[in-house]
Write a structure and sequence with these properties.
By secondary structure, this protein is an all-alpha fold. Helix 3 crosses helix 4 and helix 3 crosses helix 8. The N terminus is likely disordered.
Amino acid sequence: MRDIAQTSSPADSDQEGEAPRLNRRQAAKVRTRQKVLDSARQLFAERGYEPATIRDIAKGAGMSTGAVFANFQDKAELFEAVLSADMVKVAETVRAAAASESSVKARLRAALTATYHASIDQLPLVQAVVARSWFQPVAAEMRTREAIKPLVFVISDTLQTGVREGELSQDSDVHLLCELIYDAFLSNYRRAAYDGWNVEQLTAHMSKQIDIILASALSRQ
């Protein structure tokens, strides 16, 4: 590739770094895939995993079930694709929210509050993620963990920054703290699903949980 770039014309060089153009067939396939993803996202968010059928997803996308299966092996793969795409977008929002604060606790609160804001209207989708984690095959579980990595990374990175800056003790177990905070964050969705908690209530509860979890890790200096 490097040799080709060195011998290309100036006109070609101007276009270096641009994504390759798609032909009509490729562009149509991309549009079809996106329509399926959009329809699936809406139905998973409204109904959860099990009640959202491939037939209804195809109908929402305005195409046949065959077109859905031409792009995704099954509903599980489609669900994972929706989750992965959504988590990338959420992670961008979460990183920006965390960056707007200075202390470890404030950054964590801002990041997790932003996540609640981004997902509170899609509780059936969140419930589906949690429910499937107990019954899905190991390979699917590994893919789900990979999908949520962007959010987990923000939590971990915030904690590591706290250690570097001396706000948290140097011997803090960052991995364990990250796991405890993420598990507490995820468990709070039950309050929203069954007790009608809003984002403000979730954030207040999460703040108390963060205080307790980090209490032993705060630097004594």
